[in-house]
């Protein structure tokens, strides 16, 4: 929790309460359903919360903006971002029902009003989004195909500003198709060793149906 306060020094009282409570909620839920690996749960603020908030160092979401979190799993990066940007709307989607159940319980426990949660594959989701965020779901080519495939099928889907994807390691090969991708090193923002190879990829895809 001190880590979050250190890098996000202007949190209000409600946000401090929510970030504080998030640990106990995940610790409790993880005993019942393993949504966060055993190793990671003890370092939840570093490996999950701060990592998710890396997206906020690259992009501040505006009040009223609509964000889709694809393959949110236990709620990352969507839940920490929804706490940080309470005026922004987040739609968290995952195809695994038991993970979505935990996300629903955590969002209710934190009293998050700006989060919509859906148990489905992203290919079945329609909507108009300012950004799509994601972590550890698929290779970029597959991910883009899901998004594009959806848009080709249903005209009501719009993506205004592209994808913000949390990735690690050498991305040269994976991103060679995407000349417009911008890569931000999280080690420029966070000094912990964990972030040494961690990046945010901004792929400014704009699809209008
Ligand atoms: C490795 S987990 C990552 C979860 C979370 N984003 C995180 O970083 O902690 C990948 C998640 O993507 C979900 N997923 C994979 N393909 C999906 C799809 N087409 N639509 C929705 N969710 C998907 C899986 O169910 C799984 O929960």
Summed over residues and divided by their number, the pLDDT gives a mean of 91
Low-confidence stretches: 151-156
Distance between the termini: 42 Å
SSE pattern: HHHHEHEHEEEHEEEEE
Structural class: alpha/beta
Summarize the structure.
This protein has 209 residues and is α/β, with parallel strands linked by helices.
Give an account of the 3D structure.
One of its GO terms (cellular component) is cytosol. It comes from Leeuwenhoekiella palythoae. It holds the Pfam family GidB. The structure is a single chain. By secondary structure, this protein is α/β, with parallel strands linked by helices. The protein has a single domain (2-208), classed as 3-Layer(aba) Sandwich (Rossmann fold), CATH 3.40.50.150. The chain has helices at residues 2-7, 13-32, 38-41, 44-58, 78-84, 97-109, 140-153, and strands at 66-70, 89-94, 115-119, 128-129, 131-135, 158-159, 163-168, 182-185, 198-203, 207-208. Helix 6 (97-109) links the parallel strand 2 and strand 3. Helix 2 (13-32) packs antiparallel against helix 6 (97-109) and helix 4 packs across helix 5 (78-84). The radius of gyration is 16 Å and the shape is globular. The structure holds S-adenosylmethionine (SAM). The site of S-adenosylmethionine has 18 residues, from strand 2.
